[in-house]
């Protein structure tokens, strides 16, 4: 199947610094594709080039079978965007925000009005139709931003960290709505710093670091390819001394981060049996997850 979004050897530099370096992406119709990476990895710059908002220094972009940025305006007619920060108009009501936004796509008011009830129901905002935006909670504003991105019935939706700052209930509702979109055949391109979100929602993922693609695959493939299947987190006041003496005996690989030792193992039982006798230490035994992969590939140090 021909990709709905494709980037070939995409490159972009700012002030002599290569922000995106030879990136290749191929995104299929109807999938949720995740773009992961630490701060400064090149995610936002990549999104801007895929949307035609920034011109690459080299490489090619195709969006909905159209070349970008040459035909970006035509391609964006069937694209929805959920920006990282809500940019709703505070002077308008919930319904008026949808109406005005729909006009940007050349839609007639009657066409937009016909879509508003379903969009409000989708966002669980039917009762807030005539309420001004400043009175909405953060979760409501985020859901309205998602509904607004769908006003033109797009084939592709770009979502830049869609659940940042939301409480668990709001996050789970948005996750449910995003799953519904892929079930309808829409293609989602998602950036997020929440690894559980990426693992739950994304059919495939690409991990970027320093502008380069360093790994790609399904969440399960990335875990199986990069991390031992079991993780034991060990913590306590004497954990550093314990790690130097014992961690290497019981784990294939371990990392000391702050007051926690992360032990990556094929079989956790010998280590767990040993730890049960260590009264000064506590531990957590769990399966490996996407966050373990992310930290292994990009490092644990803070990025500014």
What is the element layout, followed by pairings?
Elements: E1 5-14, E2 17-27, E3 32-36, H1 43-51, E4 58-63, E5 66-68, H2 72-76, E6 79-82, H3 94-103, H4 109-122, H5 138-149, E7 156-160, H6 168-183, E8 187-191, H7 195-201, E9 204-209, E10 212-217, H8 219-226, E11 230-235, H9 239-250, E12 253-257, E13 260-265, H10 269-275, E14 282-287, H11 290-298
Parallel strand pairs: 3-8, 3-9, 6-7, 7-8
Antiparallel strand pairs: 1-2, 1-4, 4-5, 9-10, 11-13, 11-14, 12-13
Helix pairs in contact: 3-4, 8-11
Gyration radius, rounded: 22 Å
Structural class of the secondary structure composition? alpha/beta
Please identify, by name, the CATH architecture of the domain at 228-287: 2-Layer Sandwich
The succession of helices and strands, N to C, reads EEEHEEHEHHHEHEHEEHEHEEHEH
Would you give an account of this structure?
The chain is an alpha/beta fold and 304 residues long. It has a domain of 60 residues: Alpha-Beta Plaits (2-Layer Sandwich). The chain has 11 helices and 14 strands. The strands form 3 sheets. Strands 6-7-8-3-9-10 form a 6-stranded mixed sheet, with helices on both faces. A 4-stranded antiparallel sheet has the order 2-1-4-5. A 4-stranded antiparallel sheet has the order 12-13-11-14, with helices on one face. A hairpin with a 2-residue loop joins β9 and β10. α8 crosses α11. The mean pLDDT is 94.
